[in-house]
Design brief:
The chain has 163 residues and is mainly alpha-helical. The chain has a single domain, classed as Four Helix Bundle (Hemerythrin (Met), subunit A), CATH 1.20.120.450. It has 5 helices and 2 strands; from the N terminus they run ααααββα. It has a two-stranded antiparallel sheet with strand order 1-2. Helix 1 runs antiparallel to helix 4.
Length: 163
């Protein structure tokens, strides 16, 4: 009996994954910008949260979670620390968190992506799955934002225009 070694080629580099994620973040930022300020904080459809609250959730997840992964610190998820009153506050914090993401993402070694991490003390998955969750969650909420914009009579940006 003979055995055959299989060589696995990497599908995507960590730099490409970060670029992909930041492309989504760029698009979500544009969605935030498109909302009239009052509607950003008050408008909703079908009992869902206003888009400002969804944006705060996204801001509260990605940067703090990556910091926790890098520093091996498990902290509970909290949206209460950031309570914006204006669209500009949200956009400013979004930009700050973009830099936090870049800083911490680039400190995660290739090997760490396969390690299990207990995100916010709730979700025990490999680091790469946690990062994919951050992206998936953003896409989900941005879809809600697209729905809100359309309900307000505002044409959202094309979903593929991420840069």
């Amino acid at each position: 009996m003979t055995t055959t070694a299989t060589i696995t080629k990497q599908f995507i580099s960590t730099a490409q994954l970060l670029e992909h994620w930041q492309g989504h973040r760029n698009l979500t930022r544009r969605v935030i910008e498109m909302f009239p300020e009052k509607d950003l904080f008050e408008f909703s459809v079908g009992g869902m949260r206003p888009f400002a609250k969804l944006a705060v959730e996204l801001i509260s997840i990605a940067g703090p979670a990556l910091k926790g992964i890098v520093e091996s610190q498990i902290e509970e998820f909290s949206e209460e620390a950031f309570q914006p009153k204006t669209k500009e506050e949200i956009l400013s914090k979004w930009d700050e968190e973009t830099e936090v993401i870049n800083h911490y993402f680039n400190q995660i070694s290739e090997d760490r992506f396969q390690e299990t991490f207990n995100l916010f003390g709730q979700y025990e998955f490999p680091v790469y799955q946690n990062i994919l969750y951050f992206i998936d969650n953003e896409l989900h909420h941005r879809g809600q934002g697209f729905t809100y914009l359309r309900a307000l009579g505002i044409e959202p940006p094309f979903f593929w225009e991420r840069f």
